[in-house]
Design goal:
Blueprint: E1 4-7, H1 16-30, H2 37-40, H3 48-58, H4 67-84, H5 97-106, E2 110-114, H6 120-126, E3 135-137, H7 150-159, E4 166-170, H8 173-181, E5 185-189, E6 200-202, H9 210-220
Parallel strand pairs: 1-2, 1-4, 2-3, 4-5, 5-6
Helix pairs in contact: 1-4
Bound molecules: 1,6-di-O-phosphono-alpha-D-glucopyranose and magnesium ion.
Residues 8, 10-12, 17, 44-45, 171-172, 175 line the site of magnesium ion (MG).
Length: 221
């Protein structure tokens, strides 16, 4: 029996995935590694330092910087990202998300957040959503980021529910891997192609339907 829904933040609840992209793209250009939106799919849901390593590896530059220099590059990206999210407000919540949250609560299901972002709490407060969630698991609470299942497993544990009784919602391939690794049902938001491991995929949040998701969840169980 379904007991909880666990959301990813960036790219599912709000479009901060775009701001992460813009900030990394700038950083990539600064270090001489320009990259495409297609490559950016590989960065979604991936922690700050792991993202930097992927970008440097793309340009074969992973050995060109010391650990300290890498820290400063990551810091520089974060300062840019933080400046981009300065003015976010509840109007930046993606379509249908507030309705979905209301429906989840109406059904008596628990609500969790699983974001590897160190900025997750700040973003959730700016959106006015922090208080609605029963549990928020962010970078501070976990050792291994997505695609490792740790973050979704921790959310289930803190919600005191069996992972099999949870549905996770993600926009990133690394996030879908994390959900599936945790033994949960995965809802993908984005392209079928990059989220092929999800149990159901919606092109955008405006198409999300809790009724339909639960129908497919019950069929698979
Ligand atoms: C998010 C983003 C990633 C970002 C990561 C770390 O994860 O999807 O692109 O690199 O957080 O963010 P920060 O640099 O703010 O710590 P999620 O799990 O919310 O999708
Ligand atoms: Mg995401």
């Amino acid at each position: 029996e379904l007991q909880a829904i666990i959301f990813d933040l960036d790219g599912v609840i709000t479009d901060t995935a775009e701001y992460h992209y813009l900030a990394w793209k700038q950083l990539g250009e600064d270090v001489g590694v320009p990259f495409t939106r297609e490559f950016n799919e590989e960065l979604k849901g991936v922690s700050r330092m792991d993202s930097l390593e992927k970008i440097l590896a793309l340009g074969n530059k992973h050995n060109d910087f010391t650990a300290d220099e890498k820290m400063s590059l990551a810091e520089k990206k974060n300062e840019h990202y933080v400046s981009l999210i300065q003015n976010i407000s509840p109007t930046d919540i993606l379509p249908k998300i507030e309705e979905l949250i209301a429906d989840i609560k109406k059904m008596g299901l628990k609500l969790g957040l699983a974001s590897v972002s160190k900025n997750a709490l700040a973003v959730m407060s700016s959106l006015g959503l922090k208080e609605q969630f029963d549990v928020i698991v962010d970078a501070a609470t976990i050792k291994k980021g997505k695609p490792d299942p740790e973050i979704f497993l921790r959310a289930a544990e803190l919600l005191n529910v069996d992972p099999k009784a949870c549905i996770g919602i993600e926009d990133a391939a690394a996030g879908v891997d994390s959900i599936k690794g945790a033994g949960m049902f995965a809802v993908g938001v984005g392209s079928e192609q990059s989220l092929s491991k999800a149990d159901i995929v919606y092109a955008s949040t405006s198409e999300l339907s809790l009724e339909k998701i639960i129908e497919v969840y019950n069929k698979i169980k």
